[in-house]
Each structure stands twice: as structure tokens, then as C-alpha cells.
């Protein structure tokens, strides 16, 4: 025999959701700490050229692809094309990023990490992802897939925000 339960009120659902999302401020603190984890060579360039967290966001995107067009980078970062071009230009002048003409479309510029800094930036991204990878190791395959789907959905929502 099953018990009949009263439907959850909106207030109860909102409190439960807030409790689940209470981790978001912790994540924000973690991501703001990235400057402390930055390899010395990259940190020095950031300091010398007055680069910011937004520039770091570009490097994070470039660490996971061989190269990317400026328009695609703008879409991934959910910022305007002029902003992306400005950030990329700053990073190029600092020597962290290389811009090349797309051989298949001369009007398109492809961005990639400068070889000199690729290992440092990739190691930073890997180190920053390590807690997430360790957490996912404790999940069942089904839960990992659900968690990954949730992260993708969250990223998609933030992109349109």
C-alpha cells in the first residue's frame, strides 16, 4: 500500500533547488583562484601585459582545440565578435596566441596557442579540471553521463544569458 503525499509546494521546491545550487558560490571561488594556479611563465606574461581573467578564458578555450576561428571562439565564450577580436589581439601582442589565415577561407582568421606556451596552458587547464575528473570517477557510468549532460545544458544556458 502506498501513502498519498501532498504535492510539494512551490516554496518547498524553491528551497530544495536553492539547497542543490548552494555549490555554485563554491565553484565561483574556485574559478576566481585560477591566477594563483597559473604557471610562472604565463603569470609573468599576464602581469607584464595587464591581461585579465577574460584573456584567461580565451586561453582555456584554445587549450582544448588545435585552432579555432574568431567567430566560433566568440560563440563559445558568449561574447561579441569585437570583444573576442580585442582579447585575441591582446593575447597575440603578448605572444601567447598566434593568428593565421585559414588556408580554406582567406577571410577567416584561425587562433591557436603559441607553441612556447601550449604546454603551460594545457597543464593549467588539466590541473584545474582534476577535481572534476576525480569527482566523476566516484560516479556510476549512468550518473557520469547525466552529470555531463547537466553541465552541457548549464553551459548552453549561460551562453544564451
Spell out the blueprint of helices and strands.
Blueprint: H1 10-20, H2 24-32, H3 34-37, H4 40-49, H5 53-62, E1 68-69, H6 70-77, H7 81-93, E2 97-102, E3 105-113, H8 115-137, H9 141-159
Antiparallel strand pairs: 1-3, 2-3
Walk me through the structure:
With 161 residues, the chain is mostly helical. Helices cover 66% and strands 11% of the residues. It has nine helices and three strands; from the N terminus they run αααααβααββαα. A hairpin with a 2-residue loop joins β2 and β3. The radius of gyration is 20 Å and the shape is elongated. The N and C termini lie far apart (46 Å). The mean pLDDT is 86.
Report the portion of residues in β strands. Answer: 5-15%
Classification by helices and strands:
mainly alpha
What sort of overall outline do the alpha carbons produce when their principal axes are compared?
elongated
The run of helices and strands is HHHHHEHHEEHH
Q: Number of helical runs?
A: 9
Oligomer: single chain
Order of strands, main sheet, comes to: 1-3-2
The description of the largest β-sheet is:
3 strands, antiparallel
Distance between the termini: 46 Å
Radius of gyration over alpha carbons? 20 Å
Quick one: how many beta strands? 3
Spans of at least 5 consecutive residues with low confidence = none
Instruction: Give the fraction of residues assigned to helices.
Output: 55-70%
Average the pLDDT over all residues and give the rounded result. 86
